[in-house]
Task: structure prediction
Amino acid sequence: METLLYGDPDEEDGMPDPELDLNLDKSWHAMHYLLTGTAWDVSEGAGAAMLGGDEIGEDNGYGPARLLTSDTVRVVAAALDAIDVDNLRKRFVPEALAAADIYSAIWTQTDVDFGSYLAPYFVQLRSFYGRASASGQAVLLAIS
Result:
């Protein structure tokens, strides 16, 4: 488990392959909120992209890692692919994110906007799940 989450210390740089790794920085919770309309509830399809799957291992601070099977990854990838960035943008209401206590409490700051911060992460998320789905891979989620 440690190698999956943190890389192999015997490898040259000790980090996972960037093609197989996705870091959403502090956007993960806002992305979940935009996909589900809730702070913590998980739903099928795109709603499983951030917090779905089966818990495995120990709590890393935001709960244990979660494993999405390759079948679930295909469903998530298809659902994310069907979401238009402009439609997701319409769900971005900074005051609603702040009211729902979405991490990291930056949503009502004037320099945080959907286009420059969340949209690029959504495109990366969609691409990541698309690549994983196309190669029949499972996905291990860890928020740390």
Notes: The helical segments are 2-6, 28-36, 70-81, 85-90, 94-99, 114-134.
